[in-house]
Design goal:
heterodimer, A: Immunoglobulin-like, 3-stranded antiparallel sheet, 0% helix, B: mainly beta, Immunoglobulin-like, 6-stranded mixed sheet, 46% strand, globular
């Protein structure tokens, strides 16, 4: 897939609610647009996004063509323990892009 | 001649909502859908949904779904949350093919559904033929 930008605080207090932002570069081609040759540009959509915190799912989303190109998502989680927050974007063809971020909880 | 794709209609949005809520009653309240009332560019419209919920193990928001009336498809996104979210706030950016009504519906852990809607005007819609 492509480049992703994720924003997770590197440090947090135990029990603090942190905001997570994730953006991935992707055309999110709807399949409804006509190309230069007059034909429809084939659909290419990230249809699923998952976020896990030390392996446990904390947020996920089902995305449709109405999501803008370079899909951006922001959500919150409670900082429970130090570890790894993992992000997975899955497109229509089943291809996944993975990113991770480390967080230290004190 | 370009064949324009079929559009979602208020009726198809209603059936998409029905598929999400089933027979349950949707009440107005608890949900706040924050979206600009007038947007110049329908290709990327910021949207934030906030649900009033303590987000505890006993009482939390399970799912938030966004629907539209006039894009080719009535569904926009479905977000799955849990008590670990701490707060029920989700933001994203969406595409809008026309001025229309947007609906956000939250399903709480007790099985109730709550909604909010927003009417907005788009001066340059997404998906226009270039």
């Amino acid at each position: 897939m492509a480049r992703a930008l994720i924003n997770v605080p590197s440090k947090a207090k135990r029990g603090e609610i942190i905001e997570i932002k994730a953006l991935v570069s992707h055309p999110m081609e709807t399949g409804y647009r006509t190309g230069p040759d007059g034909g429809l540009v084939p659909r290419d959509i990230i249809s699923r996004f998952l976020c896990t915190y030390n392996g446990e799912e904390i947020f996920s989303a089902d995305l449709f063509p109405a999501i803008a190109a370079n899909p951006f998502l922001s959500f919150t989680t409670v900082a429970t323990e130090s570890g790894r927050i993992a992000f997975r974007w899955i497109d229509d063809k089943g291809q996944a892009h993975l990113e991770t971020a480390e967080i230290v909880v004190e | 001649i370009v064949a324009r794709p079929a559009r979602a209609t208020p009726e198809s949005m209603a059936s998409a909502i029905k598929a999400f809520v089933g027979e349950a009653e949707v009440q107005t309240g608890k949900v706040a859908l924050d979206i600009p009332p007038l947007v110049e560019n329908g290709n990327s419209v910021p949207l934030t949904v906030t649900v009033e919920s303590p987000m505890t193990q006993q009482d939390f928001v399970r799912t938030i779904a966004i629907f539209n009336e006039k894009n080719p498809q009535p569904n926009v996104a479905v977000f799955h949350l849990g008590p670990r979210a701490g707060r029920a706030v989700v933001s994203t950016r969406i595409r809008l093919g026309d001025s229309q009504n947007i609906v956000a519906i939250a399903r709480l852990s007790d099985g109730t559904f709550w909604s909010d809607s927003a009417e907005l005007i788009v001066t340059l819609p997404a998906c226009v033929e270039s």
